[in-house]
């Protein structure tokens, strides 16, 4: 199972010990070089975080196939911060079958795009949001002060890059906003967003804080894959 860290408020920051710093620097360098050479990568206009978009990363048939897999697995989402679970992330989610050859093909495509080791990637997680459902502002990296951290440290360490694909266009709502950067992304069928959760010097980047705004009309489907600093699981 994979979980996203919950941070529902853009509030005071507790200083947490840094983890996997050298490895996060290396992951940053690796992906940065790879994307710089990729003409399909569009860098979002900010210097405070490395966020890239790719249009038509998945074709419509692939989106439909993935939507069916999300529907087959979706259950209420969980975050580590259990008491706030229902307030923070109200979508349905679940790992799509990692043994499915189609899922493996999409995973390889993402691994390849980023140039990261496939073994560092968590299983792809699917999410489905109905009207009113959202994922409030949070960062994807783990807090090293949290109760869950020792376990995550053993199973792959800190999260470096996030890759997230939109499987459909939403009738209304469901926008992803990087809340500290004033950047909003409207779900576009087949588009992929990738970002570095760390700064170039290997610290968690608070400016990657983001929220999935509530869906107003229609349904929203996304898949997310997080990359650790070493073998996951
Ligand atoms: O659905 C979105 O737009 C964002 C999802 C997200 O932040 C996550 O899965 O960590
Ligand atoms: Fe997230």
TrEMBL record:
Keywords: Dioxygenase, Iron, Metal-binding, Oxidoreductase, Vitamin C. Residues 1-12 have a biased composition (Basic and acidic residues). GO terms for molecular function: dioxygenase activity; iron ion binding; L-ascorbic acid binding; oxidoreductase activity, acting on paired donors, with incorporation or reduction of molecular oxygen. It comes from the Bacteria. InterPro entries: Oxoglu/Fe-dep_dioxygenase_dom, P4HA-like, Pro_4_hyd_alph, Pro_4_hyd_alph_FE2OG_OXY. Gene3D superfamilies: q2cbj1_9rhob like domain (2.60.120.620). Residues 119-229 form the Fe2OG dioxygenase domain. Residues 1-20 are annotated as: Disordered. Its cofactor is L-ascorbate. This is 2OG-Fe(II) oxygenase. It comes from Novosphingobium piscinae.
């Amino acid at each position: 199972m994979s979980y996203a860290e919950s941070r529902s408020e853009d509030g005071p920051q507790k200083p947490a010990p840094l983890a996997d710093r050298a490895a996060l620097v290396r992951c940053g360098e690796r992906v940065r070089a790879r994307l710089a050479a990729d003409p399909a990568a569009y860098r979002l206009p900010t210097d405070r975080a490395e966020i890239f978009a790719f249009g038509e990363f998945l074709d419509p048939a692939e989106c439909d196939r993935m939507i069916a897999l999300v529907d087959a697995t979706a259950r209420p989402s969980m975050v580590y911060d259990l008491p706030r679970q229902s307030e923070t992330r109200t979508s349905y989610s679940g790992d799509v079958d990692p043994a499915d050859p189609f899922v493996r093909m999409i995973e390889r495509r993402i691994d390849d795009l980023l140039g990261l080791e496939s073994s560092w990637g968590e299983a792809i997680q699917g999410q489905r949001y109905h009207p009113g459902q959202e994922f409030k502002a949070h960062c994807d990296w783990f807090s090293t002060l949290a109760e869950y951290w020792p376990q995550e440290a053993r199973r792959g360490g800190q999260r470096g890059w996030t890759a997230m694909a939109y499987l459909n266009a939403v009738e209304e709502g469901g926008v992803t906003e990087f809340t500290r950067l004033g950047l909003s992304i409207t779900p576009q069928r087949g588009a992929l967003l990738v970002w570095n959760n760390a700064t170039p010097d290997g610290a968690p980047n608070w400016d990657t804080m983001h929220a999935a705004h509530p869906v107003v009309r229609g349904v929203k489907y996304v898949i997310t894959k997080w990359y650790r600093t070493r073998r996951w699981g």
